[in-house]
Design a protein that fits this description.
The complex is a heterodimer of chains A (131) and B (282).
Chain A (H helix, E strand, L loop, with lengths): L8 E4 L3 H13 L5 E4 L2 H9 L5 E4 L8 H10 L8 E5 L4 H9 L4 E4 L4 H17 L1
Parallel strand pairs in A: 1-2, 1-3, 3-4, 4-5
Chain B lengths: L2 H19 L9 H9 L4 H15 L4 H13 L2 H26 L2 H61 L5 H35 L3 H30 L30 H10 L3
Helix pairs in contact in B: 1-5, 2-4, 2-5, 3-5, 4-5, 6-7, 6-8
Classes of the chains: A alpha/beta (131), B mainly alpha (282).
Chain lengths: 131, 282
Amino acid sequence: MAADPKTRFLVVDDFSTMRRIVRNLLKELGFTNVDEAEDGAIALQKLQGGGFEFVVTDWNMPNMDGLTLLQTIRATPNLKHLPVLMITAEAKKENIIAAAQAGASGYIVKPFTAGTLSEKLNKIFEKYGQA
Amino acid sequence: MSASNDSSDLEALFDSIATDYQPVAPTPPAPAPVATPAKSVDGDNDDLQALFDSVAAESAVPVAKGVLAAAAQAQGENWSQQEVVFNRIGHMARALHDTLGQLGYDKLIEKTVSALPDAKDRLAYVANLTEQAACRVLNATDIAGPLVDDMAARSKTLGASWDKVFANQMTPEQFKQLAVETRQFLNQQMPEKTQGTHAQLTEIMMAQDFQDLTGQVIKKIVALAQDLESGLMGLLIEVLPDAKRTEEVTSLMNGPVVNAEGRTDVVVNQEQVDDLLDSLGF
């Protein structure tokens, strides 16, 4: 997958402010095709609807948290190929390890910068391009 | 409801439980019903169990186990087991209440309990103000962004036209037109858009006024939390067995690390995240 500006993103976070910030940053980076979900359960519904190519998710959310969402995505045949980037305030080493083991494509700790997001996205696009 | 109402209600509850059970003679404890409530939940319960046990033991309510066991044996049904739990909790509450009273913590806790709803409101207020501020700032950037983009695009177009002038690629008519456009841009469009952008910068600055208000509110809550902490710490040190004091809670949903000093189990920046993942081969 190349860094196609039409790549369809799903931004999952329970705080509307953070969804808006991530959406704005993605726009700055040239990605305007962005949808939002306020927790893992809603995200999963939207993902099942199809059409998404990239998931950016928070960890700590009501109903379904980000790790469960990631695990569910990886266990669902038609979704498991999706890149999942976690952007979270959870900064314990065991969190990072758990996310990596569950198949996260990248891990960003909050607070983060536009530069970090750009770097991680590029890295993921590179990796998926090779695969 | 005021705090004093609460405590008289509790007082009445304690008394009713205590009078219900005091007349019954103690019998030897039976293991089965006592073990049941502890098994139902996970590891945390053992800690609580130990805490309750130690409280109960200290406050000299040896009657409890025997009475409860006897009651449960007599009925042997689910309901009676539930009743055993309720009764046990009642005795624990009574014991805890007595202990607190003896140690002088009851007043402190009463004060804290009455302060908690207030703290809750205050925190809700903080959440509200910070959310509003975030929205104001995001709205301002949404408005200012296009203004700046427009200035940039317009400057670029004019700049390209002037490059043509310097490359002698313009007729006198086109040059005249360019001069008029440039003048209009400098005198009208530019000031309008910079003023518009400036207004949004001011809006962003003013949106930070929450910090003064939330700062004051948060300081009060920090003071309350400190009181509560020192009170509860004192209480725990009095009643908790040594072995239980050092166990910490492990969970994957802790939110932001507010104080990473001296901790080795957390990362403090993105480089450390990347290093950790690299070192693990991810």
